[in-house]
Amino acid sequence: MIGQTPAPPYYAVIFSSQRRKADPAYDQAAEHMVDLARQQPGFLGVESARGADGFGITVSYWSSEAAIVAWKQHAEHRAIRERGRSDWYQHFHTRVSKVERAYSFGD
Amino acid sequence: MIGQTPAPPYYAVIFSSQRRKADPAYDQAAEHMVDLARQQPGFLGVESARGADGFGITVSYWSSEAAIVAWKQHAEHRAIRERGRSDWYQHFHTRVSKVERAYSFGD
After folding, report:
1. pTM for the whole structure
2. Measured between CA atoms, how close is A17 to chain B, in angstroms?
3. Minimal CA–CA distance to A26: which of A85, A69, A74?
4. What is the ipTM of this complex?
5. In this predicted model, what pLDDT tens digit does every residue of A45-96 receive, in sequence order?
6. Spelled out in words, what is the top-level CATH class assigned to the domain B10-99?
7. Does the beta carbon of A7 lie under 8 angstroms from any beta carbon of chain B?
8. Interatomic CA distance for residues B45 and B5, integer angstroms
9. Check: CATH 3.30.2060.10 for A10-48+57-99?
């Protein structure tokens, strides 16, 4: 899914992860987290892709670092992250970055 | 694939794209570009995922903005980007960002 974002600067959280085996509960939780993120102040958009090998990248876009910290501390988000570590992910990396320039092609 | 990156700060190029139909020539070109990127000064790593719907995200990591600019100007990379626009991508976004903090879980 493509997030339409404003002109830089803004922030990107790059989350790359290796899933363990497929689990419908994961898909449900991931969808719910995106719905919840959309309701947070400063949320700008999200893009996500996962291949058949279970490796995926989700990038969420935010207007400020404060918005990212607030989302990180959200109670429901914290709880689901615990479940991610115990049940769903073999490993993941989270990187918080500041988008300095952006360009696009196509529709 | 997972790129092992050093402690921040460093740079991330977030490339999200919607593929047109599958094309073996694309896969070959993508693989070649990764091989070529690995040889560039300042290259730190790359992660890539594409779902069955043809939407994908590739994030490459670099030690400096100068390294990103040099790679962007690489002749073979320029030529393949032309082909990407004409043949392979319906749309894409490129975002250059500075990674400010990072954390990991698992192996």
Report:
1. 0.95
2. 9
3. A85
4. 0.94
5. 999 999 999 999 999 999 999 999 999 999 999 999 999 999 999 999 999 9
6. alpha beta
7. no
8. 7
9. no
pLDDT digits (tens, 9 = 90+) for A16-27: 999 999 899 999
Contact B102 A93 (CB under 8 A): yes
**Nearest 10 degrees: CA dihedral of B39, A59, A99, A106?**
80
Q: Which residue in this structure is represented by tokens 């390294």? A: B67
Structure tokens belonging to residue A83? 């479940």
Burial category of A10 from C-beta neighbours within 10 Å (exposed 0-12, middle 13-18, buried 19 and up): buried
CA-nearest residue of chain B to A53?
B49
Q: Find chain B residues with C-beta within 8 A of A81's C-beta.
A: none
The per-residue pLDDT for range B1-14, each reduced to its tens digit, is 345 799 999 999 99
